[in-house]
Amino acid sequence: MKIRLQIGVTAAFTTIAVVMLGVTVAFLYNSNRNLALQTARAEMESARQKSVDGLINVILPVGQVVTTTADMITSFPGAISEPTGGSVMASQIKGLPQIYGLFFGFEDDGRFFQVIKIPDGLKTFGPRNAPIPKDSKIIYRTIDDALSGEKTDSYLYQSDWGTVTGKEESAATYDPRTRAWYEGAKDKDGIFVSPFYTFNSTNKPGVTFAKRVLNPDRSLMGVVGADLTLESVNKILGDIRIGEQGRVFMLDAQQRVLAYNGPYGSNENETLFKIDNRTISDPIVSRAIVSWTGNPDTFFEFIDETDGKKYLGSAAPIPEIFGVAPVLGLIVPEDEFVGDIKATTRNVLQIATAILVFTVILIAIISRILSRQINAVAEEAEKIGQFDLGGDFDMESHIYEVDALSKAVANMKLSLKSFGAYVPADVVKSIMSAGNPVEIGGEARELSIMFTDIEGFTAKTENYSPTDLALELSNYFAAMEQQITINGNGTIDKYIGDAIMAFWNAPTNDPDHVDHACKAALACRLAGRRLNSISQDSRLFPLYTRFGLHTDQVVVGNVGSKHRLQYTALGEAVNLASRIEGLNKIYGTRILVSEAIEKRASDKFLLRYVDRVVPLGTSMPIDIFELIGDRDDTTNALVDIATQKIEIAAWDVCMDLYHDQKWAEAHDAFKAHLEAATTPKLVEIYIERCREFIDHPPEKNWDEVNHMTRK
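^ that's the sequence the OP posted. Answer follows.
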């Protein structure tokens, strides 16, 4: 595949520029992206450490409160049942917002004492879920049977310890000994941390820290517990969350979601967080958990199928506190870190693209200017390749190579013009199109061959200047050549003095070569008449040309030596065509054709029978005919076709009598025809023959053949 210079230069520059730009931008983007991802990992690591510090500050005090309360009860077992015990518990949790409540349950009778800090936003509370009294901040809840003998669940609402704002009582249904935190702590030394669950009093998620208290005899006195709400954890998660679309989550050992903070809120949102099975409805977190579970690396990446965005993730257990080591996970959209880089890259690409487009246009214009002259040279060379040598080619260029090329093409065109004057144009075209060396040899092919000759040329030119003769004869040849060429693209084989040899169906195939040869002969006859009409001041003109046509198989091709070749036709048919042309002198005709031409020519040509002869130098008799005109071309005809048809009909009558050997009748018919005949010499020949046959009739086996003794 070949491309134009302008397109090639532009495409090459564009390709190189695009590749270099792409590589540069890709390198810068990847470098900046890697740097941004390193920054993201560093921020995640920093956030993780910050969360660990925050969780320690939240969780450790809860454990300390539980331990301190357990120690107090061990030292003063009766104080917990008194209001002073409640006061001590209230003071323990007053400065710790993460603790929802502090409580103690007795093993022997299920008594229960609890101090609760009312969460912000809580409107109802208690066994009947009644409205909380105004200004209430603390609830002192007791389950005891000291007064009535039956356990009563009492809620004492206070704005501050000792300042009562309301009271509510009901039959006790709550037994601390049946709760998970109690069951988990009573058989364990140290602090027990319950799984996350929904607090019965607030219906919100949290976790309980519990520690058993033993009697002096090592029997179980009861269990101290403190409720840790997730609000404080959520606040920590919110503080370490990265970006507007970042997520932070915590998983327990079973990879259930303990806490969440993200664009959808926190795990306090009941529509988002399902406390029963600890799952989250945020699809990004769900996909991150699945991705990390399959490959639990500290840092990982994944693509969400819902939005097609890429996310950076980090998940790892935090240091164990009181036996708890939840997994802390952070999720950040990659665009949070590389978004600006992408935007900058897009801007760079847009600017670079604009510059590239401008540069490509400029290069295209420059290459067009550079290639325009080369295109002109190429077009001229293509014309030369098709042997279209018309016009001159003169082009100058400031580019040395282009200027040298244009001059070489101009010289080649001039040389081929000269070459074309010696060799038929079709032959040159075939040689140039083949692109192969010319070799000696030919092929058998049927040709229609024409010979021409000027009547009385030798006598006319005896005293003619050779220079003047060559000039005027060239005008005659040019007129003949034009008609031969335009009628079927005939090939002029050679000029022989004043004669012309031409043929059809070589080198270009021509299935209608017989008709084209007939048309060319008639056209040449008409061209000669026109030359005679415009050359009245010339001593050479008027000229009268005779034509001979024949068609048959010949050998046509390159004849000569390796150093000098001629494209010509060889064979008996060539000689016969020449002999037929010479017979015009005998019969007084202008265009004689062989029987082969007469049989192959179409019905549109007007012909008449002339004679059956054996031309000089041949041995086989042939019928010859006179080509009179073209039935369809009446505009420029030399003869009146209608009149000629009448004459031919009369001639045919005469010839019928002649063929029937009715010599006297034929003689009288020819005599009568002589006055109107356009070729009286032909008629006179037959009158003379009839006279002789009247006196000396031919033999019975007479074949009507006339043997010619001269050309």
